[in-house]
Amino acid sequence: MPKRDYYDILGLKDNASQVEIKRVYRDLAKQHHPDVNKGNKEAENRFKEISEAYNVLRDPAKRQKYDQMKKYGAFTDGGQPGGFGGFNGFDFSKFSQGGYRTQRSGGGTIIDELFGMGGMGDIFSQMFDQGSRTRQERYGGQQKSNTVQTELTIPFDLAVNGGKQPVSIVVDDNCKTCNGTGAEKGAKPKTCPDCQGRGNISISQGFFAVNRTCPRCYGRGILIDRPCTACNGSGNAKGTKNLSINIPRGISDGTLLRLKGMGNNGKKKGNRGDLIVKIKITPHRFYKRKGNDVYCEVPIDIIKAIQSTKIRVKTVYNTKVELKIPAGSKDSKTFRLKGLGINSNKGKGDLYVTIKVVRRTNLTDEEKRIVNEFDNNGKA
């Protein structure tokens, strides 16, 4: 049977719309998917052929390149060097049949760019939430480490002074039933014969070379005939981890702390992920913070504000400083105490003290005279 081009595989004309391509692919994929044709090798190969064609034609950029190559005879039926089966001696059909597994260093070529030879299960999993997706999640290739994010609320004083803070998080860890192997007790994972345990295959001929995830083991490098029932073959299980986090001195609200290797267990032989902790700081009843600067309000009797006085102000570090209030100071006047704010790795902030003048009602006659005179002079 002669090899056909991608349009022939899907039974479409060259000018088929994207909507039509998608509709036809859905119908054909459902009909020929291995999950509904168990043991039918012909249906499996047909599904791979359909998926390969759709993977190119659904992407406008890939389709344009394919059409250009087809225009110059790369995919004409029969003959050499053209035909779906050959282009300058290169047999494209062997992509979907697992051929060209010669290991080759180096990387992608125009073929890799054009056809994007990822696993066919990835395409079908966009439509179905079972079948190939389940198998791929179970036997999938090495994944990037899973980072865990959480929020931690700490007191204002701890943020200022720094220190330790306990936290409990739920993360993925090795399944205790199978010890992370993913296999049922007594069963042993087998090395994938197609990729020899590497998890990927290199397809090469002449000057072409394409690396792709092994379609048999989905990149894991092993095959599990009897998956662990506790973790469904993933090798991971949820568990609670108790940690003590070091809070840096002067940390700001919203800061993200990264704890290396304290996140989820890496799936499919991957490294353990990180834990990212977002810090939330409980507001203080007396101080307000802006960066490393600290603001507070201190009440002061009107007679003291008129005649001058000294007050003692406590800093965020529980030290007390003396602040001189000049005579005739107005309500809401703010004084800056340089360097007495929060001390962090970004430097020292300042302490800003705002006085709130309190007008008592139980003034003596002499005090009333002082206040009236002060008010009449426009100084309060």
Overview of the molecule:
With 380 residues, the protein is an alpha+beta fold. The chain starts with 5 loop residues before the first helix and ends with a helix. It has three domains: 6-141 and 194-213, Orthogonal Bundle (Helix Hairpins), CATH 1.10.287.110; 148-184 and 235-281, Urease metallochaperone UreE, N-terminal domain (HSP40/DNAj peptide-binding domain), CATH 2.60.260; 288-376, HSP40/DNAj peptide-binding domain (Sandwich), CATH 2.60.260.20. The chain contains ten helices and 17 strands.
Mean pLDDT: 78
| Beta strand count | 17
Number of continuous helical runs? 10
CATH superfamily of the largest domain: DnaJ domain
Helix-strand makeup class: alpha+beta
Q: What is the CA-atom radius of gyration, in angstroms?
A: 36 Å
Shape: elongated
- Portion of residues within helices: 10-25%
**Strand order in the largest sheet:** 10-11-17-14
Question: What is the total domain count?
Answer: 3
The low-confidence runs, each spanning 5 or more residues with pLDDT under 50, are: 76-144
